[in-house]
């Protein structure tokens, strides 16, 4: 599919981190169907140049959305909108829990830790 453009409007003075503003605007574009499953997003580098921000900020936003299953990255091809819709108006606590859990699970996968091992690690931690 063709690359879809989102008009980002970032405000560094509003107290919301820039990466979070990017996440919110991508989610809003999906929920309002301005971008749909299969649409390709701009590359990290091109979006960073366009918005005049650090590429790591874009990578963090894309990474969080990928952990949540909203975006999918295909190496050498790009980042695409997945079939999973973001949850509208999610409260901050639940969002933070999912973000932390998603990062933890991704880190464990990268270390080659199986789901069963993760469960055992959590149980051992709880037991003291």
TrEMBL record:
PROSITE patterns noted in UniProt: HTH_GNTR (PS50949)
Signal peptide: none
Keywords, ordered alphabetically: DNA-binding, Transcription, Transcription regulation
Gene3D superfamilies from the UniProt entry: Winged helix-like DNA-binding domain superfamily/Winged helix DNA-binding domain
Superkingdom of origin: Bacteria
PANTHER family noted in UniProt: HTH-TYPE TRANSCRIPTIONAL REPRESSOR YTRA
Entry protein name: GntR family transcriptional regulator
Organism in which the protein naturally occurs: Breznakiella homolactica
């Amino acid at each position: 599919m063709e690359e879809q453009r989102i008009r980002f409007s970032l405000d560094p003075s509003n107290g919301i981190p820039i990466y979070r503003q990017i996440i919110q605007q991508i989610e809003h574009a999906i929920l309002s169907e301005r971008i749909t499953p299969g649409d390709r997003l701009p590359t990290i580098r091109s979006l960073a140049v366009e918005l005049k921000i650090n590429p790591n900020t874009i990578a963090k936003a894309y990474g969080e959305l990928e952990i949540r299953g909203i975006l999918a990255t295909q190496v050498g091809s790009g980042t695409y909108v997945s079939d999973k819709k973001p949850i509208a108006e999610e409260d901050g606590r639940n969002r933070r829990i999912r973000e932390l859990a998603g990062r933890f699970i991704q880190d464990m996968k990268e270390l080659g830790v199986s789901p069963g091992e993760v469960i055992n690690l959590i149980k051992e931690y709880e037991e003291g």
